[in-house]
Structures
1.
Amino acid sequence: MIRDPETLQALLDSVNRFVRERLVPAEPIVAETDEIPEDLQRGMKELGLFGLTIPEEYGGFGATMEEEVMVMLAMGQTSPCFRSLFGTTVGIGSQGILLDGSEAQKKKYLPKLATGELMASFALTEPEAGSDAASLRTTAIRDGDHYIVNGTKRFITNAPQAGIFTLMARTNPEDKGASGVSAFIVEADTKGISIGRKDRKMGQRGAHTADVIFENARVPASQLIGGREGQGFKTAMKVLEKGRIHIAAICVGVAERMLRDALQYAIQRKQFGQPIAEFQLVQAMLADSQAEIYAARCMVIDAARRRDEGLNVSTEASCCKMFASEMCGRVADRAVQIFGGSGYVADHGIERFYRDVRLFRLYEGTTQIQQIVIARNLVREATR
Ligand code: COS
């Protein structure tokens, strides 16, 4: 749902300009230094991107899912590490508070998240609990008016910069399943929390992930999201469901960018006395990419609209994440192919995108997890 087309268009115009004039030129330097320059971070804050999905009453833009998708399609036109900086906060980092937090928790954290003064990370994955998220081992044991947290979280995006973590931990160690898990807002400067060294990743330089280690960290009981134990896994699933539509939109945006670059190259590059864009085998790669991008774009917008209507979009969100991330991988592969040898060397940036987009098929639920969610939902509906 788009509330006011003019306001949204004004935001999209600003984002498009910022992407084109500031972010795209900075791609090589970010890839080289593994850091997003301060002025670009400030620029994203000034644009209001950190508050994109936070309701207006807490100082954000209050984007609907459809509006969020439109902004992510625009942000996808550059290196995905830029999206990661604010997208982790507006995507999965803050949503737990927003969806299930108490009014006091919302009032305390959302305004600071909206300005970017505070960044939020989502801490679910562990060394032994990846796809099987409900098997997580980090414990949060009640001790008076605190919980004592122990455990390690892995691959936590923005952990080095985060001011708060949405932490999923087991409050009932007797219960080994999903219902023993609770969600907390944990302030990063809590004693007993340390951040591991930055992971050395395949791509997305400029976006940082690391372990977050909890050693007898005392977290006030007031930080339990919504004040109810045993709800944390459901909170995480709801957050991820929304996050999957957000990521799918980014996949579409990045695929559009890669296709545009490949098309420009194909028009300029001559072989056998003519632009390679004239060759039908190259055209097939361009056409397949365009058709798949269009399909994914339609899916993402449809899923977003359905969610805005209040419909259950568990199946649609997983369909979008699965199709768009796999599509993005295929488009990246074809783009490298069209660039030929130049696609394999760093100068054209396309090999960087190839590496960057590999993550899309893994995080916020692998393709195989999306298949499981989709199939389970189908079987459940058919046998109800
Ligand atoms: N919204 C609300 N509740 C949900 C939900 C959703 N989208 N999905 C599941 N739940 C609820 C279920 O209804 C169930 O509640 P009840 O016991 O009251 O019925 C509970 O959560 C447990 O669900 P389920 O039985 O499906 O859990 P499983 O352990 O079988 O796990 C999968 C389900 C595999 C889908 C889940 O572990 C998953 O998504 N894994 C991938 C994790 C992931 O994306 N990691 C990325 C890290 S973050 S970048």
2.
Amino acid sequence: MNKKILLTGDRPTGKLHLGHYVGSLKNRVKMQEEYNTFIMVADIQALTDNYDNPQKVRDNVFEVVADNLAAGIDSKNVNYFIQSQIPEIAELTIFFSNMVTVSELQRNPTVKTEIGQKGKLFKDGNVTFGFLGYPVSQTADISFLKAEIVPVGEDQLPVLEQGNRILKKFNRYYGKTFPEIKGIVGDVARLAGLDGNKMSKSLNNAIYLSDTSEEVANKIKKAKTDSENKVYYDLKKKPEISNLMEYYKIATGKSFDEIENEFKDITYYSEFKEKLTEELNNFLNNFRERRKKYEENPQLVWDILEDGRKKVREIAKKNMIEVKEKMKINY
Ligand code: TRP
């Protein structure tokens, strides 16, 4: 098998939403056959900023796997596994931790922004060793499998750059072992939520892949508009309508011009909103149908994860033998 390896992960801290879909899941769907694909549930990483709430992390393992399966990332093509079940990742994290300085991590834009957002958890710069080091462990997540292709949200690119600096150093000190990693960002890098801020669970502005049709209808009904009652794309002048057009585009695949043309004769935005609700629900119906099977029988998800664990551990063991040889700790 000479397909390149693709790996990506989700922190199990909540259900996945449309922003995750356009930012990363859509690419996973597209690329799953071209690459040897692995999807990791990053439970240890989720604990770095949820160490005080392990039940939340536990409960969301099922949800994120079900969301990926619902999006059409098929367990026939893809290996799903849980980070904490692969001890080699933790081992490699320790080895990689010598390849990075504390100040490099403190300067990382993703880490910096996230520490800022955590509020009281990391108050007054009192960030934990574990959180500060998550780019190191994320590099291990990717490289223990020698993965090269990494579909992620745009915000994660500085973490992957840090990863490449670690891998370069490792290869320089111990001999060429790991390939460079390449982040792949979706065509809508930053989807706005219903309030115009970045779509995010914590801001309560998201449309979830698992929302019911009533939930979608309510959210769209309440979405802010302007008073012009004309549908056209102008992010500056009409951010609310432009954003709803973006959702319409995701649901239908139509261009902004086509959408503008389709609604040129409406009198009230409610006509646009009704059609948007219908199209979003058509789009999400595929997800709902695929998800149902796993909701009715959650054991299917746990079986998929167990299959993945077995396959992944085989590769992990093999790669760690090589790593330890290179590092001269192969006693
Ligand atoms: N940090 C990623 C996120 O928040 C999740 C993640 C963990 C990940 N390990 C990974 C992504 C490895 C890609 C590769 O989205």
